[in-house]
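Hi X.,

You mentioned you wanted examples for the new student's onboarding notes, showing what a folding record looks like when two proteins sit in one file. Here is a clean example. The first protein comes first, with its sequence line followed by its structure tokens.
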Amino acid sequence: MPLKPAKGGSARAKVDASTSPTRPDDIDIELAGTSRRGGAGAASSADHLASRAGPSSAIDADATRATAAVVVNALPAQASLPASQPTLDHYVINARAMLPELNSEGLRVLNQRTYVDVADGDLVLVAVDPQTGLQRARRPSELLPGPVMLRDADSGLWYAREVVEPTTRAQIERYFPQATDQQVENLIARFGDKDVADVELKRVQSGLAQMERDMAILDGTGSFVAREMASRLRRLYTWQGDPDERVYHDDRLAGFKIEIDLNAWPTHRTFPTTFNSIASLTLRDGSQLNLEAFLR
């Protein structure tokens, strides 16, 4: 649309009457921001408009002075909106009819994949985090695990953890009512996360009977050294290591150290018990021992 030169250097635009039925044809309107002059110049512009419109015009001179302005701010070229974090809905699947019944841990396992029941009858694929022992939501196409999943003791349903709570003495004493101060201090120092501590406390508690059977075999060898090892392993299994037995990694308690005389260990004997609390192991001699079986 051609612009008509305006008095005082301001630009004017023509308004097509076909698109503005309430305005007469061929009205010149001053464009916003094309002139910074006010006073008599602004008033004469309004008078000019009124005279062009004629006495029957409905145009108000004051209205013509007020022009709408649109401010556009350009975003930097590199600016981008933050990526939203995935919710549990991203991990829900529908395959209940194909899956087996719940096991004792509230899990459904099929073809080496594990599923948990969540609210509203949905299912979520999970996998154990090797660092913490906790179940975490996942999708087959993703390498990185999703949120930590916890099971509600009353309903048996699983939910995504939102808050990390610290390990407490009361929590430890629920599993070991006679826990010593040293045992409580060790567990809190090693497991600051209440849910991670629960995984280890349950494992230790459920394995106590098997551990005692294994240690009874050491006691039965008749060797004083073997009995001493059995006594020490009993302590370490329940995280009752002494301060001088502690092993630290990145300034944090990792576990305890122990030295085992393999000459006193029953030859070719393997024990099912796992000692998560042992972070440093020194083996002496043992030429007659099946070392691979022992380390398993």
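Then the second protein repeats the pattern, sequence line and then tokens:
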Amino acid sequence: MLGVLVLTLAFQWIYAAWLNPVWGYLGFAYNTPPLGYFILACLVCILPSLWIPLALTRPSQLIYWLLYVTVYIPSILVALNAALMPLSQVLWLMVTLLAGFGVMGLSYFRPLLNIRRPYESKEIFWYGLAAITIGLIGWVWFIYSGHFQIVSFASVYEQLRFSGGALGSGTGVGYALMWLSGAVFPFFITLALFKRWWLVFLGGALGELMLYASGGMKGPVLTLVFIPLMYFYLKSNKAPNFGPRLVWTLGPLLVALTVINVALGERTRNTAVEMGSSIVAVRVFAISGLSTAYYQRFFASRPLTYYSHVTGMNLLVEYPYDRSIGEEVGFDMYNSNEVNWNANFWATDGLAALGLPGIIVISLVAGFLFWILDSVAQRHDPVFAAVVCCYAAANIGNTSLFTSFVSGGLGFLVVLFFFMPKGIEKRKQKPVPEPKRRLIARPLKVGRLAAGEVQPDANQKSGAARFDENRLPGLRA
């Protein structure tokens, strides 16, 4: 609880001291909240630490923790500081998020399903996965052949993202891109780390770079850093203390970033310090909170979608807008048709679909899907399954829950864990030879002993002495 409080106060500090002055043009307005509301916000941020699992025994618990620190806490604090809605409405958002987060955690109080598998064959699994991987890579290569190029993050939109989107439009290659980046390549990279298969790791890394060079997706490049960090973080034999270690890592990190940026001021512009601060403070934490605040304001006065934004549901319910939800919110925020403001599942599938009650509804759905994921992955090492899912878990904080499962790779991983043979992630240990035992012969004097005298054996012609073992308890044959 103390660690969560430090993280909450650290985010509040970096928001007021750095985010608002430097990134205020994105929408990070700062209105000093009343002390009573701020204390209440801190309490709402801390309360989930009373029930959230501290140990990492299921893969979805990593997702639960990441949502807690990167979506839940920032959504509460950004909504309070930006004050896009009256404080009474912000208070209702806090309470609803608290209830939704609690409902989502109910899945950890239910026993997992014992799902029977029709068969278990390593050959069928590997051949099938290889065929799917080759097919998806071939799909991407066919669409983007001649378009691959490595550019900097600063120019990725102008040189890659827009042109790559035009090439892939109407081809369905987006599914291949997301399945490869969210499931297939993370699986091979994680397996290579666990089994020390460095050539496989290199192949997965080159595959992620290919995805970046095709459509300008930044996520695959960040995966090459995020997955190894999460692997070494969890493999340090401290998975039972994962939760406390996470908050005690992120809280001081935000404090350090605030001190550095405030102390150096303008000298951090266009430096590695500014880039690192923007990735951690803006991209990882603040954007998700700003999305929640903007979606609450937008759909407080506009038609709800009633899940018509989900493919299939639009056949039953008419979608009320001409563009996607992200484009509608982006135009309202920046008055630009080029902004597609994707948001976390509480905003997209909750506030946009049903308003505040939608947060409770989609939290129930998320808890059920987490339960299914944990049920199919229970035969495998939870640390391995969690590391494989970490990139797909991050997508839930940036897009619809249904998109994350269908096209984002999380549903693909559910199928993968279901057919994956047990123990495939374990590295074979070299047999340790047993130490050789040597018999040490010691001379034995024949004569009067403490336990009695040695009597000669009259039955042996050689006249050798026979020892009475009952009278010599210290003697062994």
